[in-house]
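Translate sequence into structure tokens.
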Amino acid sequence: MPQNIIIQEISEEKISLNINGQVQEIKSQLGELKELLKSQESKTVQYADKIYNIEHINEANFGLLSGKKAFNESITERLIEAIQPHNVFAEKLINYMQKNNIENWASQEKYNGRAKEILTSSYVGVIGMQLSHLMGIGQNENKSSEEKIIPYIKKCLYIAKYSLDLLNFTFISKLWDMHQKNPLKLTDQQRQ
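Result follows.
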């Protein structure tokens, strides 16, 4: 007989469920939730005022339910930390977060918005523009998580390709500058 299952609390580590009045905790993993529902012969679970069919929950939308970082949060946090040694604004932002003990700042629009501004203005031309587009895809509230994931990944790959192209151009330019000062003698094999 199907059970009445209500999610009481979700964190990154665990899910607390009320199953017909009895509280049970499981790891915050989609597989565990699906196994529990299967064992209780239930296809739905209630969270807040919404009822979810377990067959329609996948890793992408489960991440949003369970409080795992959304699209822009992870990339914003990682990029700010990566440019911190080279960017005074990123350094000030990180120092402010540490000084004021602000955890999960990337999930707070107040700080996340400032971090996005720093990122898009810190990367060169096309890369900064494309980062801005990427943030737009992740922010788009009119689309579900499932609708965003493919365009988001494609945009990430596009940015990576352009970043590598820019890096290659920089290396070739530097090599040419070195060659102009001190001509390099290349073997036939190196030329090829």
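Note: DSSP finds eight helices and five strands in the chain.
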